[in-house]
Structures are given as structure tokens and as C-alpha cells.
Design brief:
With 196 residues, the protein is α+β, with helices and mostly antiparallel strands. The chain has helices at residues 5-11, 39-42, 47-50, 118-122, 148-160, 167-177; strands at 15-22, 29-38, 56-58, 63-67, 76-85, 95-103, 127-136. Strands 1, 2, 3, 4, 5, 6 and 7 form a seven-stranded antiparallel beta sheet that branches. Strand 1 and strand 2 (29-38) form a beta hairpin.
């Protein structure tokens, strides 16, 4: 997906991946955005700060949500929140659920984490990765674990959290060429297309 230079500069992104995946059976979509840059820049821009500039308002409380990647016993921890598209008529638009976390990918720190203060947690890191999963909500009462982005993250995270690989290279290379079959099925067996 195209990302403007202004957005990349605001995010502090030195490199990025932006993709949308579509379930061919249900038409559910998941947006994936991965950025890497200096920790001082990457740690400060979170959806509660950035999404209002895109016409969204947080709807409810920000939560921490563990996500257990397929085939793993160790949780990745993400922040998540519900956002509502503001409408000029005041009625409000669709709801989306956003998940986000950081990965320092240094030494023994190879897992996606959601610290209370990313600036304090990663202040000394030279490079820092931030990963977003976003999907529309079916309704306001949809549980976090029923959201399409959550289910997609369960499958995607094993590919982006390998102890010996850099998250950016794992996401960029495979997603630009071909998507492995295991990433093409959400638990209920719908098929995801290659990214659009």
C-alpha cells in the first residue's frame, strides 16, 4: 500500500512494509504496517496520537492483549484499542480494531512487547520495529479475540518473531514474492489473497 513521505517522516520510519490482506471467502481485510527506525522516533507515535489526524477517535479503553503465535508457547504482547471513524454529520463511521507492539530485536529481546512507556523501555535502542495489525469490527461488542486482525496475527507472528531473523526482512521478502500456504488460511479455513 502506498504510504506518503509525510506519514513516514512523522512516524520516523527508515523503512516500512504496508500491506492489506483480503479473505477471499468473507472479504474481511487486515492491514499490516511494519516500520523500523531510531527508537526515539518509533516509540513516540502510537495510534492514540496518530489516528485522530486521520479522522478517527479512540472508542473505549486501550488494553494489553497477549497473542500466542501458532506453534508457540510464548505470548507476544500487544496494545489494542477500538477506533471510530468520525463523521461530518456527527453519527460516526465504522469501527476498527488496532493492535500495535514493538520489537527491539537485540540480544535476547526478540519478542513483540507492549510496555507501558515505550520511550522508557526502548530509549537506548538504536533501531526499533513497530508492528500494527488493523481490521474492521463486525460490531461494537465484537471481542478482541474474534477480530480478524487478532486471528491473522496468530498466524503472522511466527514468521516475524524468529529468534535468528530480523522482523523487517521476514515480512518484506516473503510478502513481496509469495505468501506461504499457512498464512493463507485463517482458523475457519477462509483463504487470504496475496497482498493488495
Amino acid at each position: 500500500n502506498p504510504v506518503t513521505d509525510e506519514t513516514l517522516n512523522t512516524a520516523g520510519a527508515v523503512s516500512h512494509v504496508s500491506r492489506t490482506y483480503t479473505n477471499q471467502q468473507t472479504n474481511d481485510k487486515v492491514d499490516v504496517w511494519l516500520v523500523v527506525g531510531h527508537a526515539r522516533d518509533i516509540s513516540r507515535h502510537t495510534p492514540d496520537i496518530c489516528y485522530p489526524s486521520q479522522g478517527f477517535a479512540m472508542d473505549g479503553t486501550q488494553l494489553k492483549q497477549p497473542i500466542t503465535p501458532d506453534g508457540s508457547t510464548e505470548d507476544a504482547n500487544f496494545h489494542t484499542a477500538r477506533f471510530k471513524k468520525e463523521s461530518s454529520l456527527g453519527a460516526g463511521g465504522p469501527l476498527v480494531r488496532v493492535f500495535w507492539a514493538w520489537n527491539p530485536n537485540e540480544g535476547d529481546e526478540k519478542q513483540w512487547v507492549a510496555p507501558d512507556s515505550s520511550r522508557i523501555a526502548f530509549g537506548n535502542n538504536r533501531a526499533l520495529y513497530k508492528l500494527y495489525f488493523t481490521s474492521a469490527m463486525k460490531d461494537r461488542e465484537e471481542s478482541v479475540t474474534d477480530n480478524t486482525a487478532y486471528k491473522f496475527a496468530e498466524m503472522m507472528l511466527p514468521r516475524s518473531s524468529s529468534a535468528d531473523a530480523r522482523p523487517i526482512s521476514l515480512l518484506v521478502a516473503p510478502l513481496r514474492t509469495s505468501t506461504p500456504a499457512r498464512l493463507l488460511a485463517i482458523p475457519a479455513n477462509p483463504v487470504l489473497s496475496t497482498p493488495t
